[in-house]
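Same chain as my last thread, 82 residues:
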Amino acid sequence: MSTLPGHPRIAYGSRVKPVTATYLVAESSRDRFKAIASRTGLSASGFFDALVENMPLDDDGVPTFMSRQDQLLLEEEPRKTG
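reply #2:
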């Protein structure tokens, strides 16, 4: 998906130490993320950067939309290696 006409893009070469993020996510989540990004007028990577910089965090640095119960469940999930 491209950005919307009239919306600014991140200038090529303007990122400091750019890396490729290689996270395995559900295809439906990726597609939803890209659609949300497109509605903002940003690329998925530009939206990711904006989200990281502007996500509301609590005093412990945890996103405010996550409850303590969510955090405990995530800590209990077995980690897959390989």
